[in-house]
Amino acid sequence: MGVAVRFAAVEFADMNGYFQSNSEREKGRMVLPSRRKGYCPAGADQTPTSSLLRGTIMSEWWHEFRRQMPVAERWAYFDHAAVAPLSLPAKQALANWADEVTNNGDANWSEWRKRVSPVRDSAARLLGCQSSEIAFIPNTTSGLSIIAEAFPWQPGDNVVLASGEFPANRNTWRCLIPRGVEVRVVESEPGSDVCTIDRLLAATDARTRIVTASWVGFVTGWRHDLDELADACHRRGILLCVDAIQGLGVIPLDLSRTSVDFLAADGHKWMLGPEGAGVLFIRQEHLERLRPTGIGPNSIGFSGSYLGDVADYSDDAGSYRVARPLQPREMWSSARRFEGGTANAGGILALGASLDLLLSFGIDAIWSRLCDITDQLRQTLDSLNFTICSSAEPTRRSGIVSCEISDDDRRRILATAKPAGVLLNFREGLMRFSPHAYTDETDLERLRSVLAEGRSP
Question: What sections of 43-162 are H helices per DSSP?
Answer without folding.
Answer: 51-67, 88-104, 109-114, 116-127, 140-150
